Amino acid sequence: MQGDIEKILITRQKISERIGELGREIRRDLDDLSRDGEIVLVPILTGSIIFVADLMRELPHKIRIGVIAASSYPGKSMQSKGVQLAGSLPADLADKHVLIVDDILDSGSTIRAIRKEIATRHPRSVRACVLLRKTIPSAMQTPCEYVGFDIPDEFVVGYGLDYDNYYRNLPDIGTLKKEAM
Ligand code: IMP
Ligand code: MG
Questions:
Q1: Residue 80: which of 109, 102, 59, 104 has the closest Cα?
Q2: Cα angle: 35, vertex 67, 108; to 5 degrees
């Protein structure tokens, strides 16, 4: 497992510090907004499970969660094959503040598709928060209010991110050795 990692890009320590900061940013923005209401978190499975668990504990608001599954990298593919959404959004998003949470912004099609779907439910606001964003045009041009780290265009695993559904449990984020792919 750990031996398959080529290079650690972001340590667990750095991740944890940055999530503290993201929490402060979101609290600042949503405190006013949510005085009269709750926040609905929409984590995108499976990659965001660890991130959302840490992030939500930085948010003291009244919160509901409705997970949604999206897959664009079936099996061992490392290029997006188009987004498949599965599961249903939480009912009753009307007039609610919705925060989409994902692990990484790459082609942007996942966040765009979910934003579009949520917008049809007449929420009061929709925002997105990702831990990582690749510094490529498709990602940089996708509307996203909160970004943990901008990273180079490399395939990364750990802290929820997978390759072929493995490596999600690594506490740091890193790249894989060629032999492991
Ligand atoms: P997008 O729709 O292309 O922005 O893809 C986002 C989804 O693809 C993320 O939720 C991840 O699950 C997956 N993904 C994109 N890049 C990586 C990566 O470098 N490692 C692992 N998963 C990735
Ligand atoms: Mg994902």
A1: 109
A2: 95
Rounded to the nearest angstrom, the distance between the alpha carbon of 128 and the centre of ligand 1 is 15
Q: Smallest Cα–Cα separation from 97: which of 66, 124, 62?
A: 124
C-alpha of 167 from chain center: 16
CB 118 within 8 A of CB 93: yes
Cβ(85)–Cβ(91) below 8 Å: no
CA of residue 70 to ligand 2 center, whole Å = 6
User: Which residues' Cβ are closer than 6 Å to ligand 1?
Assistant: 44, 47, 72-73, 80, 83, 102-110, 155-157, 161-162
* Separation between Cα atoms, residue 104 and residue 160, nearest integer Å: 10
Q: ∠ CA(117), CA(123), CA(129), 5° rounding? A: 70
Residues 80-100: pLDDT tens digits?
A: 566 778 877 888 899 899 999
Catalytic status, residue 102:
no
On whether the pTM is more than 0.90, the answer is yes
Cα–Cα distance for residue pair 62/83, rounded to 1 Å? 30
